[in-house]
Amino acid sequence: MKYYYRFIATLRKVYRLLNVKKRSEIVWKELIKLHKEENWYFGKFENEKYILTTFTDKENRKQKFRYELTENNLKFHSFILNSFDEDKTNDILVLASHLNELISFGKVSVSTKYNCVQLIYDGDLVNYMLFPGEIHSDLRSHYHLTIDFLWAFSNLIETNEDPVFVVSELLRRNNDQDKTTD
Prior knowledge:
By secondary structure, the protein is an alpha+beta fold.
């Protein structure tokens, strides 16, 4: 029976490779299927090919995430700060720079025009088409980074600490969480 399921999985990958031009359609269906299976609250926009999902963090804050299909990518997008005071711009840019140095998944983007901070990641559609489980894995990574960075930027604004100290505290918190989960 085990070999049967492996054979079916391999057959599915071969079919998808032969139909690589349908990658956007295949990943779109996988993304919707994942959201339904997980019972996540979401809205789908068929014409624009994106999904808006709302998750609640540990502090009961609602955070919106956008997952958009482009021609070759699945774009993960979340707002970390919807707005900030212009006098905080330099500290926010420094913090974003430090955080970008620490991560290999996505990038923290600061818009000085709209005074907002976002976390953006582009994943390859062919990878998600062949390995649908990677969608869930990357969604989880994007979510956890968003929550961590939301804490970091909120802490920066509330405490008025130097961005280096905020990054240091974030690393310490994550290290403490890793120790408690071991």
